[in-house]
Amino acid sequence: MKVVTWNVNSLRARIERVLEFLEVHSPDALLLQETKCSPEQFPAEELEAAGYEAVHHSGGRWAGVAVLAPKGHGLKEAKIGLDGEASPDQARWVEADIESLGVRVASVYVVNGQELGSEPFAQKLQFLSAMADRAEELADMPLVVGGDMNVAPLDLDVYDPSKFEGATHVTEEERAGLRAVAERGGLVDAYRQLHPDEQGFTWWDYRGGSFHRGFGLRIDLLLVSESLSGEITSCGIDRDFRKGTKPSDHVPLIVELNR
Predict the structure, then answer these.
(1) Most Cβ neighbours (<10 Å): which of 59, 112, 144, 171?
(2) What is the extent of the structural domain holding 23?
(3) For residues 150 and 171, what is the distance between their CA atoms, to the nearest angstrom?
(4) Strands 187-189 and 220-225
């Protein structure tokens, strides 16, 4: 089983790259974030022509999340949005069951937070708390939660922690919120399980040649139920999709399980 999370930074702008990815990797589930389209604009027909169906939570110009699976795999919408999140209209969480795999997956785009002490930062902590509540509700089923967490879990996940002093993405409040999601949901960080000492960045700023200079962050995660963690055989990124025509500033993160 191959599950992928990818913040595409506008699905309409990068539909050709997404179709290319589907052809190259043939994932069993592709979790997308920042689709940035209204429900009417979601490219369901193009994806269907590529052999995939989708469940999506689309909110227009900002945010937006989706789950894609091959047609015939029994993709069923399970839940849209989180109870207790500050702005449900921002379209940041969608769950789906994939019946052929016997797994529930969730695609999430955590609030950015902007700056410490701001209202968006408070909303980010509230969103992480709502995620933890939901993860605990789902703790008894096989589950993969993937997405752009907008939190670097450790200093190891930051190219230079000194550059982020007094900034979001690295505070103890954010990290504690993310840890609570994993702990209460019985989830493990698939990449860290296999690569305890490697940085494994998933995002690089478009500016200043950050990608080529290695100035990145690991903020995209795949959190896997402990019951599935023994089945993980590989977890890593595909750097090629941060290159070429119209790349997102994030790369796909791919986990494979012997399931």
Answers:
(1) 144
(2) 2-257
(3) 11
(4) antiparallel
pTM of whole model > 0.85? yes
Query: Distance between CA atoms of 236 and 23, rounded to whole angstroms?
Result: 18
When computed from its CA atoms, the radius of gyration of the chain, rounded to whole angstroms, is 17
Burial-class residue 208 by CB neighbours within 10 Å (0-12, 13-18, 19+). Answer: exposed
Phi first, then psi, for residue 93 (nearest 5°) are -145, 135
Q: What is the mean pLDDT of residues 95-106?
A: 97
* DSSP state at residue 245: S
What is the average per-residue pLDDT within 165-192?
98
Helices (H), 71-209: 119-137, 172-185, 190-194
Residue 250, strand partner residues: 203
Distance separating alpha carbons of residues 221 and 99, to the nearest angstrom? 23
Bridge-based pairing state of the strands 52-57 and 2-7: unpaired
Q: For residue range 193-235, list pLDDT tens digits in order.
A: 999 999 999 999 999 999 999 999 999 999 999 999 999 999 9
Report pLDDT for 62.
83
Give SS3 for 137: helix
What CATH number should be reported for the domain holding residue 229? 3.60.10.10
Number of domains in the chain: 1
